[in-house]
What does this fold into?
Amino acid sequence: MTKRIEDLKILENKRISDDFFVLELSGNKILPELKPGQFAQIRVDGSPDTFLRRPISIHDVDYEKNSIRLLIQIAGKGTKTLSKLRTGDDLNLIYPLGNSFCLPALNEKVLLIGGGCGIAPLLFLGKYLKSNGYIPDILLGFRNKERIIEFEEYLKIGNVFITTEDGSHGEKGNVTTHSILSTDQYKKIYCCGPDSMMKAVASYSKERNIICEVSLENLMACGIGACLCCIVDTVKGHLCTCTDGPVFNINDLKW
Amino acid sequence: MVNLGFSIGDLHFKNIVLTASGTFGYGPEFEDFIDVSRLGGIVLKGMTLEPREGNLYPRMAETPSGMLNAVGLQNKGINYFEKNIYPRIIGYNTNIIVNVNGSYIEDYVAVAEIINELENIPAIELNISCPNVKMGGMAFGTNLSSAREVTKAVRSVYSKKLIVKLSPNVTNIVDFAKVVEEEGADSISLINTLLGMSVDIERMRPSLSTITGGLSGPAIKPVAVRMVWQVAKAVRIPVIGMGGIMTASDALEFLLVGASAIQVGTASFIDPQASIKILEGIENYLIDKGISDIKEIIGYINRPVF
It folds into this structure.
């Protein structure tokens, strides 16, 4: 699959909470085939402090409209700059990058688990699973009611379960303490979120022999396997998150 | 048509734009973005005799106008390269240069001996300046007698073009340039990264697992230009300049102070087409100025003002 470097235009920059916004982008060229789990390297212009590109996962793809959406959390100077983009502005992307989530076996009950900004790739994945005949359950964890990211679109894919650490919405606790995990129905879990959450989900999955894939968010410089900065320790040695990942089967990770 | 070529002895480069070691992989990583064969040369990711896992994560930190890295020479070793990577890249119509590393002089020599037999590798870049390994690397490039010894030892077994890559982390880089020239280096490349450090104030820990790392990017360019100017005046062999080159204008500064060629490094991380854009920009500059050969501008600032 060919990677490309391209200026895309902002169709819409929609603020969905204090810290989160969604960019919808489109270009003159027809979109390449994109797979759930893949990401783009976004150039942030205008400040010496934002020297490197920012890796952002693909949140949603609309081939009919020829547009992609990126769900971004304002986490630092780079994402703050991106949050100020307006309709019509150009954004330079290198994409599509990375591997993708693997489809489950037929008729397997699957669960998507996301925390914070980690819910971003799960929308694309959920839609993809649905179009392949699966009805996944979706478990989303947030710190509190105020930090909940708009999840209406996830409701169209499958049953959505929410946890908050303070119990202000959904079940109190974190994703691994949610009651749906006390059932034995899931054969495959896909997870993206903070490292601590993914590690907890990984150990839950290992205990029950559930196949589990996680999407890592390591720091990156190039995104194309040249700099070897974003490595993760695996049973096969140090691998690049950008080209060997970002999706890894937990059995391959030295967690 | 302008002539953009240069030579190290009898080894001709079709143009003066090369890619810097550790920033361009082995070439295939960039094939979706550029025609690698348009480059004057590519310097491959640092190679060692045995496979190396490199340092622990985190190995990289963004800094103002630059980045720190502490990759630590992760590579699969010379034998893996010879069997699996070399056959994949020998089709490139450009000079492929292997960046050679080691913990001991014997390691450098062993790698150089193997590379010497590879028909499609016309030159090596001896890396005596990697700041991110516990043994070897920069230790050779920051001590005059070690720099002399390793250059001499490799020269005695390596018959093709020997480029020595110098460390900027010394008091007087000219002394090192003269020593490696005396020991038979055919060319000198500089600068490797500057030793640096940054702290993550949220975690209250160093940003890098290794605490210190190598600084690259535009932040180091003025230091690099100064050192290239000093070295180019002091030696007779061609100097290859690098350090923070992002644009053709940056590259031209290095050429005007005396570099015979340049390497594009960190810029390739932000724009995988940077090397080709820089090549085209240099060509346009020469056309605009009515200059037909790049050699006319090499070291131009040293000429008297009339």
The radius of gyration of chain A is 18 Å. The longest helix of chain A spans residues 195-207. The CA atoms of residues 196 and 202 of chain A lie 10 Å apart. The interface with chain B takes residues 2-5, 43, 48-53, 94, 218-222, 224-233, 237-238 of chain A (CB under 8 Å).
